[in-house]
Every structure is written in structure tokens, then in C-alpha cells.
Amino acid sequence: MITEVAKVRQAELRGPRPKPREAEIESILSRYDGEQRWLINILFDVQAEYRYLPREVLEYLSRRMNLSLAEIYGIATFYKAFTLTPRGKHEVTVCLGTACHVRGSINVLEDLQRTLKVKPGGTTEDGEFSLETVNCLGACALGPVVVVDGEYHGQMSPAKVKGLLDEARKKG
Questions:
Q1: Which domains does the chain have, with CATH numbers?
Q2: In what helix (H) or strand (E) does residue 131 lie, and over which residues does it extend?
Q3: What is the DSSP string of 15-31?
Q4: pLDDT tens for residues 115-124?
Q5: Exposed, middle or buried, 54 (CB in 10 Å: 0-12/13-18/19+)?
Q6: Average pLDDT, stretch 65-89?
């Protein structure tokens, strides 16, 4: 199993990452008066800006907020909502809960993996899509369910996957 640190190293080897923009980071910090108690909110806002938590930004936050880098990484790696690796422009999540599973979510997931050429937890080479799985989305009556950029798509099938991805690409 690849550790989060190994994923970061692999991402670094793939090419240049966007340079953190100090003005944007300062803007985020100003929303929370740079207070340590708001670290989780700050990390959420940083991730929304960059689609992941870049090391350079975490180092900047460490200096700016007077927190150790270890403390920040502790929070960033504890919560599954955060990622240290670059995420795709579009987030695709497949529900593997019982109701979705018995209705064929595994087949949908396998088709997404073949189409995108990426495994769950990964991002396509072009940075367009990230693929994730979850144990339940709470939309059992719609199963199998795939969520693309926060939008739920029920009664999914392998035949609908291509159209779903094309629709996401058109939206930008």
C-alpha cells in the first residue's frame, strides 16, 4: 500500500506544481485572523484553492501561524477530507455501500477505472479527474450512486459512465 508521503513524492516527480500564491494564502488567513483555532477551516479553504494541500503552503502556514509543520501535517493527515496529493479538476466518487453494491456499483467502478485509467485514490495523468470510493453516500434508493463534483447521479451503470464523464468535461 502506498503511503500518503509516497503519493506526494510520486506527484512531485510528475512535474511542476503550481507555485503557492502568497496573496491568496494571506487572504485565507485574514478571514480567520490567522488564529490557530481555525486551522481546519484554513486548510479547507487552501484545499479549495489548490485542490490539495501543497507542501509549500503548509510550510508557509507553519511559519505564519506559529505552528510546527508536524502539527499541521497531523491535522492534514488525520482527516480523510484533506489530501496532500494533487486532485483532479473533477471529483468522481463511487458508492460501494451494501445497497449500491448489490445493484452493481462494482461494475460501474471497474468501468470508471478502465475509462479513466486510474485506481481509486488516484488522479488521471491530465489532472482532469480524481476517483474515490466511499462506503455509503446515504442515497441507497438511488443506487448505484456516483457523485461528480458534488452532484449525485443515481441508477448508474457502466453504459452511462462515458456520458457522465463527457458531461463533467463540458461543464469545465
A1: 4-78 (no CATH), 90-171 (3.40.30.10)
A2: strand 129-134
A3: -PPPPP-HHHHHHHHHH
A4: 999 999 999 9
A5: buried
A6: 92
